UniProtKB/TrEMBL annotation, chain A:
This is Molybdopterin-containing oxidoreductase family iron-sulfur binding subunit. One of its GO terms (molecular function) is 4 iron, 4 sulfur cluster binding. Residues 128-159, 160-189 form the 4Fe-4S ferredoxin-type domain. The keyword Mitochondrion does not apply. The lineage of its organism: Bacteria, Pseudomonadati, Bacteroidota, Cytophagia, Cytophagales.
UniProtKB/TrEMBL annotation, chain B:
The chain crosses the membrane at residues 21-44, 64-88, 100-118, 138-162, 203-227, 239-262, 283-301, 321-343, 350-370, 400-420. It comes from Pontibacter ramchanderi. It holds the Pfam family NrfD. Its main location: membrane. This is Molybdopterin-containing oxidoreductase family membrane subunit. It comes from the Bacteria.
Amino acid sequence: MKEKDNSRRQFLTTGLLATLAIGCTSEDPFTAAVDASVEPSGEKVKLLSVDGEEIEVDRAFLKPVPHMPSVSALEARAGFPGKKFVMVIDLSRCKNLKKCQSACNHMHQVHPGQGWIQIHAMQDAANTAPYWQPSLCMHCDEPPCVKVCPVDATFKRQDGIVAIDSDRCVGCRFCMAACPYSARVFNWEKPLITEVQAAQPYSCETSTPQKIGTVGKCDFCPDMVRKGELPHCVTACPNGVFMFGDMNEDTVTNGPETFRFSELIKDKAGYRLMEDLGTKPNVYYLPPVNRNFPFEEGYNTAAAQKGA
Amino acid sequence: MEKEIKLSEAQITADLYPRKFGLPGMLWTSLLIAICLVGAYAYYLQLRDGLGVTALRDYASWGIYISNFVFFVAISLVGSLITAVLRLSNVHWSTPLTRIAEIIAVSGIVFAAIIIIVDMGRPDRFLYVMIHGRLQSPIIWDVVVISTYLVISLLLLYIPLLPDLKIMLQHKEKNIKWLNKVYHFLGSFWVGSKEQFRLSEKAINILAVTIIPVAFCIHTVTSWLFATTYRPGWDSTNFGAYFISGAFLVGAGAVVVAMYVFRKAYHLEKYITDDHFNKMGKIVVLLALLYLYFNINEYLVPAFKMKKFEVEHLEGLFTGHFAGIFWFAIATSMVLPILILLFKSGRKPLPMFIAGLLVVVGAWCKRFLIVTPTMLHPMLPMTDAPEEFMHYFPTWQESAITLGSLAGALLIVTFFTRILPIIPVQETIAEQHETDKDN
């Protein structure tokens, strides 16, 4: 039953996209759909067609594209069947550029100053090497946050993602106390979003719109996965630090490069954070050896960004 | 045992009957109401603008609201100590103190519930805790045991009140008029027959047995809100017992303070005697020693090992940022009261009152130290957050709400003494008869 629903949705989506694509190739893509009652305003807007051609359209004919059918709340809670998402973070490539953070914050309406990804300056002991460590939700297989949530507002999906239902969250912040990775942030104030954004229905897959008095954190971007794309942090990082994939397919990719997950972890001695707590994270780290950048450079980039 | 002066029934009733507030009473009540109103206004601001009006941020996401919650739950445990533990061990001298303990318990637990709603980011979704409650969350356990404890405490307050309500109804002209209807509604079925006394005696015994495990549960579960996490300072198997011993201590301290105030305000020297203070003093010193024992376990055992995650936390308490308040709390909640109360001359009303105040103030600071320093020592470093996230000092709104809740709890106790006898009248008369018979 469920699969049937999915295929119908997919069919509708493909059809919709195809129509749009065909429409964009003709000279005046909107003529066919033009409502005769719409009077041209005379003001032309330049658009880019899917072929890369620049086209001009009268502003009056522009209509907002209907939203793609969003997944139901139940589907968003269940997750993708047969998937097991995993992320690998290569510490040897990170120089604290924070492109991941700004992309993530932008896409998820995270309050300025907070971050679902935080890049920590790590130094395990006085005489060990410092390194930059992007930290995000570990999507643990034994998530301490899910255990303590009193109202099932944070939950574990079958694809391994730990997600949040901001329509359910009561804002007790027990999950924040329980999370040993400090991965969770709270909407202390009214989110800085437009009224139109705030009026959208909440989705556990986009984790937006942000709502005051609720907890937020990295969601592994299942909405992007549904579109066949990579999470925002992965695509935003110019150094390919983040690799995302499916454990069942044994593949992770940062876009340009794709690796066998098991081989990558084996070859580079991948590890997880705070293994002794038994949380079983789904985020793996590759040690900061043979680095692409010296550690100090991270401070320069951070300072440069602050200055900018 | 000092020689009791014979008192007539009428005399006892007249002495213990609720009285109009004098000038100090009026001033005290107005002050409390004023503090409550400021707190209510601050809460209005918080409702309007969100928890952002507090100093709470992502690291210190629990602050004085949660400390205050733990404090209220702790102080409420005294109801079970005085009413149940002492009753079941056949101790009779504590009878005049039962109602004081029980009203402290009820007001404490009511404000524990209120302050936890204040701490919620979405108080409008409070009912979700019932509708979507998941049994594996310690918060749900807390909701269950706290509401159970509130019901049992209310019954333990109410049932022994019945004979006194009868007395109140016999003196309708002395009472505030509209309250007569309330007294009537609450207690008119009580005629004082032997059968009724037998039933109420039995009911109180059953409740006294029931409330002890429930009391242990409320504070153990409250400690588990912390102990079920991995954080330094909370990750302890000692926490339940540590919390309960501290709770009995602060509750007993609060009863001592209340005893002194009521005795002074209503001239109850014949009913709350020096002997009561002496005996309560022994209880407080015992509890303080017990709490000291648990504190030594709680701080010195991790300090012996100094595990990586604990180091910063413990150093912050012993010599760092929180050292001032830490040593203040240790001194006021344990060391000084022990030093005062170990000696017989220290167990006189005035030094007891001071010791009781020290215990209560120290206990509040102690709850703060249990909650916030741990939150400011996360397991990953705080290197990628705004400066303001790395400290915690409550804002005026937060402080006003917290003070308002404390004033509110005191207001419940104050109003209670105005409308009902704070020392059980009928039980005092009955005891008087018994001592008469013995003589």
